[in-house]
Amino acid sequence: MKASGIILAGGKNTRIKTKKAFIQLNGKITLIENTLTLFKKIFPEIIIVTNNPGAYSKFETKVVEDLIKDKGSLGGIFTGLCFSTSQVNFMIGCDMPFPNSDLINYIIQKPVEYDLVIPVINNKAETLFARYSKNTLPVICSHLLKDKLKLQDLLSDLMALKITPEEVERFDPEHLSFFNVNTQEDLAKAKDIYSKHR
Asked: How far is CA 75 from CA 38, 59, 100, 123, 191, in A?
């Protein structure tokens, strides 16, 4: 199934005080480079959504700027879907160091009629590690116009297929795909995980 990979890199990074996409876990490769390397093995089209396109111009991929400013991740998802040439799109945050490629492939291969294919862990939908159809654009646009920006609110308005923890654990038993770096403490933990898994 043809799909596009979309990386959301437009966050304000207020808690960690540094551009999360350019954090290094091993002193060499950055988080954004890590995701790009993985995505190039899966997706024929990759899109980075950011409010600072110049910072990403060195990467040989499509870089786009938020169409609607200051709307958080929902605005980034909307922008990525607008620029994508695929009906099926996989979204990921730029601050997720350990995406599992087998899990991504499992998610994108689910039946195309679903608007949203999303892992649900501990009753929390992992909205930034999920598959979004172009069909979600009218609903997302409606939420943006109402300033209804919580991603969790999308689920009740879309035809969603939830991926269970048991399904996730077939590929990613430690749920590392959903780990994200928001604080210095998270970064320290990520470096520890990286050293143990490399």
From this structure: 24, 22, 25, 24, 30
pLDDT tens profile 120-159: 998 999 999 999 999 999 999 999 999 999 999 999 999 9
Residue 45, classed as helix, strand or coil, is strand
Phi then psi for 154, rounded to 5 degrees? -70, -30
pLDDT, tens digit, for every residue of 159-173? 999 999 999 999 999
The fold of the 3-197 domain, in CATH, is Spore Coat Polysaccharide Biosynthesis Protein SpsA; Chain A (3.90.550)
Burial 138-158 (b: 16+ CB within 10 A, else e): eebeebbeeeeeebeebeebb
Query: What is the CA angle 188-181-51, rounded to 5?
Result: 140
Pair of tokens at residue 127 = 């909205």
Q: Which residues neighbour 34 within 8 Å (Cβ) at sequence distance 6 or greater?
A: 25, 97
Angle at the Cα of 96 from the Cα atoms of 45 and 28, rounded to 5 degrees? 90
Confidence of residue 15 (pLDDT cuts 50, 70, 90): very low
Quickly state the pLDDT bin for 14 (edges 50, 70, 90): very low
- Three-class DSSP category at 35: helix
53 to 59, 163, 177: CA distances (angstroms): 10, 33, 26
